[in-house]
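L,D-transpeptidase family protein: structure, please.
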Amino acid sequence: MNKLYFCFLLLAFASCKKEVPEAPVVKPTKAPPIIQTDERKIKIDTALINSFKSETLQLFYASSENQTVWGNLNKRVFILNQLKKAEELGLNPDDYSSSKLSKYETKISQLNDSELACYDVMLTYNFEKFLTHLNKGKLNPKLLYRDWALEEKEFDVNTVLIKGFNRDCLDSIVESTQSTAATYKQLLKSLQLVNEFPEDAIKKIESAEKITLNDTNTALVTIKKRLLYWKDLSGRKDSLSSIYDQKTFEAVKRFQKRHGLAADGVIGAGTLKALNFTKEQRKQQIIANLERWRWYPNEFSENYFIVNIPNYSLNVVENKDTTVVRNVVVGTNKRKTPILTSTLKTIVFNPTWTVPPTILKEDVVPAMKRNRNYLANKSITIYDSAGNVVNPNNWNPNKPHSYRYVQSPGYNNSLGLMKILFPNNYSVYLHDTNHRDYFGRNNRSLSSGCVRIENPLELAQHILNDSIRWSKSRIDSLIVTKKTTNIRITQKYKLYQWYWTAWSEDNQMIFRDDIYDLDADLYAKLRN
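Here you go.
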């Protein structure tokens, strides 16, 4: 009895220790019956099951008439091995009491009925937690971020586990529980690759100036060590010099390309920042990205737009084939592009632009106070609450929010020549821009939250997919009129505005700058 009471205390402590917001739990449904075998079965006190405060667990054992189910050695060993290897999937074995469960297993033949019941319940509870984390992540993004709107994933862990249990195919459910997305699988490969690197003992690179080909700089010895470590440079450490030679120049360009930097061979602040990442930091970055991909839907729509915010890219995928690729401009760290899933609804040619509250407060009002012609120079008209045009000289700077500010359509409109609308709570959309030179920049975190698209009229023609009604010449003719025109998108396209900073290609790790500073913080919360 004392042992059972001690077990209760341990379980209560474990269940109360969670301070990090876990993934939202979908209300469990009645579980299918568990097919029992002839191994030793013990009746479990419902107080033990209820101590975990898990309705899912209660329903699981209701399917076994509150008897132990893990009498089969092979099934137990499989679960224990999966929990021990959780780190290979970017999870933490300690989250699933891996060591404690292994200790139970080593003395399985000596356990009394109470201890055996405790072990059985802990196996179920932790394996179901493991499967849930694999499917939908450990944390809940809605509790972490204000600007993340993802569709909640449903996962009936009891049905999945019991079907695998009854069919004696637990190994297949671990695979089928995870995302099928190529990027997720590439991240798992990245984790494998980074774990193959030796421990990193290279000191931090210190240099305050740009380094170009044929320069001499003492920092180059450490830079070359870093390039050798990450296999962008080949050779021997004992032959390194402080001269920026051609071989190192080519290695730097390879490194820059893998990190989404301008592959010009110039070693500047961005390249040094990327070089100074340690193995452990890159591993943590990969793990943070794995968690994010578990938040996203496991299955994609048949046709979709996907924006990777840190990569400044938009891909159109139709029937599993990438048909269009575009550079994009995304929000700054201060005015982030929100993470969301939606459906494209309308193309607007020759859009007007109404100045949003944030831009009004931070940009327009200060500029108007300096120069009353600021808005007129940008073809922006001021309207009062009755819809009357207001002369800039009569504008009241003390009540700027009592007006509406609308920019006329045209080539220099802030939204450019078109925008694409989709339902969301952030008043954002995809659109053209009057700053078309931005697409030539390497760092394109420059907008106020919306996503700006390169060559948008060609994209519109592709979406509308009607060579007669919406040919290039027809669209061009419409643009010339400067008449605002709304066109409903008949083809169903989902939109995924997501955020990932790591993946792999051809056995090489690929990284992007964490422009919104999310990776390290997310990893810390995962390991809290």
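Notes: Confidence is low (pLDDT under 50) at residues 1-20.
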